[in-house]
Design brief:
Number of strands: 9
Radius of gyration: 17 Å
Number of helices: 13
Structural class: alpha/beta
Oligomer: single chain
Strand content: 5-15%
CATH superfamily: Alkaline Phosphatase, subunit A
CATH class: Alpha Beta
Length: about 300
């Protein structure tokens, strides 16, 4: 049994209002939960768990603390005495490097990988200002996947699911369909105990209040998920999708929201895993327990 953790930035559970919420306008097959509609089922038998993103701390949830909480199980907002936006601070980096889900799984003898395709340029221009997912991977010294090697070989996924973003910087990047990215994740699940993927662009669409861009990204995500779940043996593997805070579900505002986020769970043992998740702090512990106790 293996687990795929799919992280999509800035997706909350909003109102069933197409004027505000692009998921309502798109008629999503997967993000069907709304504040005012009690439908917590997604296609392929997925269970949608409304998940608290506030970390029991006042204020709007933010990326640095929320993502640190997801990938470690540590209450980063409580530690920092506030919600921290953007990239992880030096303190949060230390937490990610010492408590990362990748490091914990490595210590347990599990084989894990991060599916996203990187470029060397990313590290050169960023210095220490790296994403929470990057620090989480670095904690375990797991090899990164590269756009000019694994992505070309069909063994990595572009951050935007197609490679269009990477192609702006590297004209030789092959643009692929979201369906192909879904198949790549499914294939990796046959090789690894744990596979993680991050899609950061949904938060961008939310901050820009851009309906057209939001619908474009939702369409990619829906096609990706359909392909992934078609190609994964759901009697054998578990797929978990989550987010760090609300944003894109309410395009009437540029800010993040206090809405709960949808944690969607498919596959073997999904009911027991769903019962264990109430907040972002529960994601890493639930996955660790699943992989060690074989729920």
């Amino acid at each position: 049994m293996s687990v795929a953790l799919l992280f999509f930035d800035g997706i909350g559970i909003g109102e069933n209002d197409p004027g505000k919420n692009p998921f309502a306008g798109y008629k999503s097959k997967f993000f069907r939960a709304f504040i005012d509609v009690n439908n917590f089922k997604a296609e392929f038998g997925g269970i949608i768990v409304p998940t608290d993103a506030t970390l029991n701390f006042p204020g709007y949830p933010q990326s640095a603390t929320g993502q640190t909480a997801i990938f470690t199980g540590v209450n980063a907002a409580e530690m920092m005495q506030g919600h921290i936006n953007g990239l992880p601070t030096p303190t949060l980096r230390k937490v990610l490097l010492s408590e990362s889900i990748f490091l914990k799984l490595k210590k347990l003898g599990k084989k894990a990988t991060f599916a996203n395709a990187y470029s060397k340029h990313y590290f050169e221009i960023r210095g220490e200002k790296l994403s929470a997912t990057t620090y989480a991977v670095m904690a375990s010294q797991i090899p990164f996947r590269w756009y000019d090697k694994e992505l070309k070989e069909g063994k990595a996924v572009p951050a935007d699911l197609t490679g269009e973003f990477l192609r702006k910087f590297y004209p030789d990047v092959k643009v692929i369909m979201p369906e192909e990215s879904g198949k790549i994740i499914a294939d990796l699940l046959c090789e690894y105990d744990f596979v993680m993927y991050e899609f950061p662009f949904t938060d961008e669409a939310g901050h820009n209040q851009d309906f057209e861009l939001a619908l474009k990204y939702i369409d990619r995500i829906e096609r990706f998920l359909w392909s992934l779940l078609t190609n994964v043996d759901l009697d054998k593997h578990l797929v978990v999708l989550t987010s760090d805070h609300g944003n894109i579900e309410d395009l009437s505002t540029k800010t993040h929201t206090l809405n709960k986020v949808p944690t969607i769970i498919w596959g073997k043992g999904k009911e027991k895993v769903a019962q264990k998740i109430k907040s972002l702090l529960d994601i890493t512990p639930a996955i660790i327990e699943y992989l060690t106790e074989q729920i």
